Amino acid sequence: MSKRVKVHLQHQEAFDSTAPVVATFRNGPPPLNQRKDLAFEVFENPTKKQRLVVASSDKVAYQGANFGYLGSSHDYANYAVGVYDKKTKEVRLCNVNQIYVMQQAIKNLSENVDDNRGEDKSFMEKRRDLVEVFGSKKSKRIQKNREENIVDLENISGAASVAQTLQKKISDAKRKLEEERAQDGSYSKEAAALAATRNALLPPCDIDAPTPDRVYDLTKFMDSTVMDSLTIMAEEIIQTLQTTSVAEYAASLNLAALPTRLMLSLPAPYDVNKMCLIVYVAYMIDFYNSHFPIRKSAAVFSEEKGIPLVIV
């Protein structure tokens, strides 16, 4: 049986001022053969009641503090430590305000770090470098959209004169349209309002098309830049579907039911032009569900949804 020793436990407020420093090592305590080489130091600012505990050896240093991110503001426990005196066989009980969590650091680590080669680069250039090295396809596409949105002031030096010319052409077109409506006996305000509503809600379409596939002809009302952007996205989807099923791809992007069904109906190998149409339909559904452009600007919507700005 273990020997029982009777001790008396006592506490006085004076003990707290001489309480020992209690620390724990986040990465585990140092090996036994290295503990004797550790030198502990305590730096204190009495005015701010801040204390910094440092333990160091030849290769490793540890640091703990009672302020900043190392402080005990996140700790909701109270601690006490007992110091046993073998001579008097008494335990001196002390309140401990904080257990110092010692963070490990390697000495002279900064000597092995290369010079900051991006110090002279702009924020946009630094972000582009990070995206090119670590970014996904989606983040690279978003970064490309950001760079395309940058306006070069040298290329718009004549913007004021161009704006005046366009405004004059718009005024001439409105005046000509009013003259034609005055001479057209079949014109009515109700029909004009219906056409304006349809054009506001739907992209240009042929409502008299004989078959559904001829309602929208993308090549007639989209320039080559928009078609190129749709083609790039379609090729990315086709490449992804070579290793992933349509169902998994649609679920990962939370794709709407209509474009998902259209993708499932396409035979393999996939046709790029038909995939462009599906991408366009998916974008139109996103526009409708987001109430665009009522709530968000084109640039914000483009970056949030990952849709090229030229399409938005």
From TrEMBL:
One of its GO terms (biological process) is DNA-templated transcription. GO terms for cellular component: DNA-directed RNA polymerase complex; nucleolus. It holds the Pfam family RNA_pol_I_A49. Keywords: DNA-directed RNA polymerase, Nucleus, Transcription. This is RNA polymerase I associated factor, A49-like protein. One of its GO terms (molecular function) is DNA binding. Belongs to the eukaryotic RPA49/POLR1E RNA polymerase subunit family. InterPro entries: RNA_pol-assoc_fac_A49-like. It is found in: Nucleus, Nucleolus. Its main location: nucleus. It comes from Phytophthora palmivora.
